[in-house]
């Protein structure tokens, strides 16, 4: 018992080894009914006794145990707690280093500086903010996205779950989430249910548990007192919804539907303990912005919540006709706009400042102008007050991005019609009016950042200057003296933003050049134009320039002398390929922009602005968009805005009454006329105003076209990606699709001249220029790469035609080699593959690699005899030897007597191979896993032990009881050696012993 007590005391009573924390003590007290002081953060003997008693009682009474998904078993770890843990790690390491330093250093010479090194603490903090999974790039697409990102909850990260471990129960909605975690807003991908959002009214208590507010109910009467309950307390009470009472706070009936321990029950109103403070209590901020939410399917509500965060701020935003009442609250809680700190009178307003005179002072508010967000959207503040206006504390005085008159405004109110139109709105495609383009209704501003660095190179220092060689003067007219473009300049693709020149490496002059230099004098050093230009597809205005330099002691890398950052504002109009959506998960792609006069129009001549597909509504079950459209039409006619909170919107009969009041058809449908012919369409069409947003997936930023361009050095295939002027990848499944369709010639084009056939595409280009149409293909370059890769694996690939072996060197060369004709893949009838002998490998090789080095750090040239050796693999530069003695096509074929490098095209580096002479033979992996075990009668694992020098193979057992080809480990080998004596048997390890046995086989 004494030893057990010592172990318990050491394990649980030492706060350095075990610490419950205040949260652990709180949980233990609540669960076991203890009254232990919260300051006691260790596990006591009495706690163990109570835990055992609780478990026995639970088993005896068959109590229902709370699951792990119950929110009383989960808590929120905030930034302070996570950061303190990282600091604790850093400080623990610091304490250990101080202690070690004190033990190792002379006490007389110890100083504070020699003991304390704060690098460990600094590294711990930096790692937390830069590398931690929960440290994310702030989403600043719009104010709602930023606010939602700050209210996000994650089950992942340090101390949390991993996606692979997450079960369905973990991702599912739990009844304790009500009012604490939104059941709708969550990502659609692999993080579904693991990343969630805090509910609108939820808060986190001091222990990290989520609480939600309720109004107290006493003997059937609702009081104004608001009480916050956590998930554990909530299980003890009967709670009803906010829709159970009328405007005066009285229950609608004697019976009420209530929640109790996850069950829905009907109880007398006197039994009700609490009532919800609002019907929107269970929703997140983003979800609560969806009107008629109760009429939408949950999946579409999820999409609507997520897509609102992707809405790009418009140049001219507009408040929705149909609001939920949360728009003003979101705008107020975001950092986008500016609100008055005190009551006063506006005495000055301009684009950059607002001054307000209060009773005690004059306060100045500085407006943020055209700042770039993390997602390249424009953050710009606009004053909405005038000189002489009176403002109260909290009033909006300046709107920000996606805010209009102090309300969140992510889009515009658009006149829409639900009808098919020539197939252009088939399958979620959308037809829009040219009016949306001309009047900049969906135009947005985006800010691109460009930067250029002047570095110190081995050949000299790069320079930012306006003196750029080989450039027309008109291209330099907008640059200042320093070579940087002026603010306010309109730029487009190809324009120079910053002039930069880089010195070229000096090449040893020829005798002719030296003679000319002696006659005419030394010429200026050669420089190369490395100017920063506007990329393809960009057209905008330079709005800001930042210049950083080491002279000004800016934080720059050691080799960077100067850095220039430029910001270009781009106005992007809506166009074909752009994505627009509503608030109900109704999204689509713009398929056609139709002239305004060709759009369907109302009887009064008003053309609709967007035509949507009616088939997109019933199957998605998001009827809320139809109700919003009808009510939006009413709001437009009556020149008003309506508040329709979630779960409190008007019913169908109320909407009909409002339509009648506005002198509109009660059905919400009307006759539309074809703008092209003037004839009425068959049947009436649902028309109205819907709030629509433009999403950040903008087609003009992603569209890319290519005819010719850069190619991969290894495969000779076109590069991929817009930034590299690449093309669209035609992958394996696409090839299957064309094979299935039978498009043989199209497929042949894709896999040859449009891919990696340099000679074929060069010929095709010439034929296109000449207007000819002769399709000629050769062996693709990828096949040659495959041959080289197989040879590098020690495999001899041979091609045969009529029992004659064709030389690989003659495959598609420009000139026939060894007097034999050229051949391609169409000329062969069979292929053979076998292991290559060492002699065959030496024949393929152009030289032996003797060093593991690659590039010389001083000369920045390949090391001689190294892995990149120019003597073996060919020159790095076209027709130029390594030392520079021979340069140019006139020396082609010459081998330099100084450096040993042949003057030839640098393309030979793709094809040439070198070899390494090994100290001992190795087993080819093909044979090691197949033929060798069969020949030797060994298992694969046993053979691997011999090859890897962890096992001994008995070659000659002698007079000992050992068997030939028996495997011995190191321990047994030494034992038998000691037992039978030195030389009594022969055993060895490694590949050499296998080679000797194979040579002895007949």
Description of the molecule:
The protein is an alpha+beta fold and 1002 residues long. Among the domains are: 64 residues, no CATH class; 75 residues, DNA-directed RNA polymerase, beta subunit, external 1 domain (Rna Polymerase Beta Subunit, Chain: C, domain 4, Roll); 127 residues, RNA polymerase II, Rpb2 subunit, wall domain (OB fold (Dihydrolipoamide Acetyltransferase, E2P)), CATH 2.40.50; 67 residues, RNA polymerase alpha subunit dimerisation domain (DCoH-like); 63 residues, no CATH class; 76 residues, no CATH class. The chain contains 27 helices and 45 strands. Strands 3, 4, 5, 6, 7, 8 and 9 form a 7-stranded mixed β-sheet that branches. A hairpin with a 2-residue loop joins β20 and β21. α4 runs antiparallel to α6 and α14 packs parallel to α15. It is globular. It starts with a helix and ends with a helix. It holds the Pfam family RNA_pol_Rpb1_1. One of its GO terms (cellular component) is DNA-directed RNA polymerase complex. InterPro entries: DNA-dir_RNA_pol_bsu_ext_1_sf, DNA-dir_RNA_pol_bsu_external_1, DNA-dir_RNA_pol_su2, DNA-dir_RNAP_su2_dom, DNA-dir_RNAP_su2_hyb_sf, RNA_pol_bsu_CS, RNA_pol_Rpb1_1, RNA_pol_Rpb1_clamp_domain.
């Amino acid at each position: 018992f004494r030893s057990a007590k010592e172990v318990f005391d050491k394990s649980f009573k030492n706060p350095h080894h075990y610490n419950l924390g205040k949260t652990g003590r709180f949980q233990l007290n609540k669960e076991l009914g203890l009254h232990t002081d919260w300051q006691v953060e260790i596990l006591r003997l009495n706690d163990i006794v109570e835990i055992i008693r609780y478990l026995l009682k639970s088993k005896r009474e068959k109590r229902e145990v709370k699951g792990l998904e119950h929110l009383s078993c989960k808590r929120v770890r905030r930034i302070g707690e996570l950061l303190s843990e990282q600091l604790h790690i850093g400080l623990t390491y610091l304490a250990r280093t101080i202690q070690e330093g004190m033990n190792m250093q002379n006490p007389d010479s110890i100083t504070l500086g020699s003991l304390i090194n704060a690098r460990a603490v600094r590294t711990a903090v930096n790692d937390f903010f830069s590398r931690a999974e929960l440290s994310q790039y702030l989403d600043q697409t719009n104010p709602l996205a930023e606010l939602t990102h700050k209210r996000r909850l994650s089950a992942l990260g340090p101390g949390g779950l991993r996606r692979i471990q997450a079960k369905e129960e973990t991702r599912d909605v739990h009844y304790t989430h009500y009012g604490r975690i939104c059941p709708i807003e969550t990502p659609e991908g692999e993080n579904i249910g693991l990343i969630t959002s805090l509910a609108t009214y939820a808060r986190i208590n001091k222990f990290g548990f989520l609480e939600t507010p309720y109004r107290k109910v006493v003997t059937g009467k609702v009081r104004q007192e608001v009480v916050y309950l956590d998930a554990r307390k909530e299980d003890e009470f009967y709670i009803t919804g906010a829709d159970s009472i009328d405007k005066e706070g009285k229950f609608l009936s004697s019976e009420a539907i209530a929640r109790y321990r996850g069950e829905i029950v009907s109880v007398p109103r006197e039994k009700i303990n609490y009532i919800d403070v609002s019907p929107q209590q269970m929703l997140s901020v983003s979800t609560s912005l969806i009107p008629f939410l109760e009429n939408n399917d949950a999946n579409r509500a999820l999409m609507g919540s997520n897509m609102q965060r992707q809405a790009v701020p418009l140049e001219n935003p507009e408040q929705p006709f149909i609001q939920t009442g949360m728009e003003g609250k979101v705008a107020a809680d975001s950092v986008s706009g500016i609100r008055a700190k005190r009551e006063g009178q506006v005495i000055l307003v301009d684009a950059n400042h607002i001054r307000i005179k209060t009773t005690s002072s004059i306060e100045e508010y500085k407006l943020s102008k055209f700042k770039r967000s993390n997602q390249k959207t424009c953050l710009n503040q606009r004053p909405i007050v005038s000189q002489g206006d009176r403002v109260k504390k909290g009033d909006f005085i300046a709107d920000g991005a996606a805010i209009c008159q102090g309300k969140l405004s992510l889009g515009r109110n658009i006149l829409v019609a639900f009808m098919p139109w020539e197939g252009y709105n088939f399958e979620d495609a959308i037809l829009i009016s040219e009016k949306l383009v001309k009047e900049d209704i969906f135009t947005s501003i985006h800010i691109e950042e460009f930067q250029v660095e002047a570095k110190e190179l081995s050949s000299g220092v790069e320079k930012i200057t306006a003196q750029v060689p080989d450039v027309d003067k008109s291209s330099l007219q907008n640059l200042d003296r320093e070579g940087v473009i002026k603010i306010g300049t309109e730029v487009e693709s190809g324009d120079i933003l910053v002039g930069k020149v880089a010195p070229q490496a000096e090449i040893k002059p020829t005798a002719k050049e030296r003679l000319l230099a002696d006659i005419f004098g030394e010429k200026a050093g050669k420089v190369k134009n490395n100017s920063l230009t506007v990329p393809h597809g960009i057209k905008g205005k330079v709005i800001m320039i930042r210049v950083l330099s080491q002279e000004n002691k800016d934080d720059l890398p050691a080799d960077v002398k100067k850095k220039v950052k430029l910001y270009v504002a781009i106005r992007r109009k809506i166009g074909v390929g752009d994505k627009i959506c509503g608030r109900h998960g109704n999204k689509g792609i713009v398929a056609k922009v139709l002239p305004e006069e060709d759009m369907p129009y109302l009887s009064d001549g008003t053309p609709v602005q967007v035509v949507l597909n009616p088939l997109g509504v019933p199957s998605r079950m998001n009827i809320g968009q139809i109700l919003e459209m009808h009510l939006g039409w009413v709001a437009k006619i009556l020149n008003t805005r309506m508040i329709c909170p979630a779960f409190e919107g008007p019913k169908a009969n109320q909407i009909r009454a409002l339509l009648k009041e506005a002198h509109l058809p009660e059905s919400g449908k009307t006759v539309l006329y074809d703008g092209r012919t003037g004839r009425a369409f068959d049947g009436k069409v649902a028309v109205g105003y819907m709030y629509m947003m433009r999403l950040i997936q903008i087609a003009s930023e992603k569209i890319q076209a290519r005819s010719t361009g850069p190619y991969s050095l290894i495969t000779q295939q076109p590069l991929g990606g817009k930034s590299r002027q690449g093309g669209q990848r035609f992958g394996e499944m696409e090839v299957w699709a064309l094979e299935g369709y039978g498009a043989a010639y199209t497929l042949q084009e894709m896999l040859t001249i449009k891919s990696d056939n340099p000679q074929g595409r060069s010929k095709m280009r010439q034929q296109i220029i000449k207007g000819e149409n002769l399709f000629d293909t050769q062996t693709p370059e990828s096949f040659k790469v495959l041959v080289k890769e197989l040879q590098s694996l020690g495999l001899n690939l041979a091609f045969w035609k009529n029992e004659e072996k064709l030389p690989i060197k003659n495959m598609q060369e420009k000139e026939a080699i060894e007097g034999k004709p050229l051949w391609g893949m169409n000329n062969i009838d069979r292929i053979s593959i076998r292991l290559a002998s060492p002699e065959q490998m030496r024949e393929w090789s152009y030289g032996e690699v003797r060093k593991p080095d690659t590039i010389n750090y001083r000369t920045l040239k390949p090391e001689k005899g190294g892995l990149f050796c120019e003597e073996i693999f060919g020159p790095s530069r076209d027709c130029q030897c390594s030392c520079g003695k021979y340069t140019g096509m006139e020396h082609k074929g010459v081998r330099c007597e100084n450096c040993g490098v042949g003057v030839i095209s640098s393309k030979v580096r793709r094809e040439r191979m070198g070899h390494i002479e090994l100290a001992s033979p190795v087993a080819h992996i093909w044979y090691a896993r197949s033929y060798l075990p069969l020949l030797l009668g060994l298992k694969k694992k046993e053979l691997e032990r011999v090859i890897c020098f962890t096992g001994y193979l008995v070659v000659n057992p002698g007079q000992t009881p050992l068997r030939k080809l028996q495997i011995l480990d190191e321990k047994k080998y030494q034992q038998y050696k000691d037992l039978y004596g030195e030389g009594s048997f022969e055993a060895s390890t490694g590949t050499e012993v296998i080679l000797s046995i194979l040579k002895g086989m007949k």
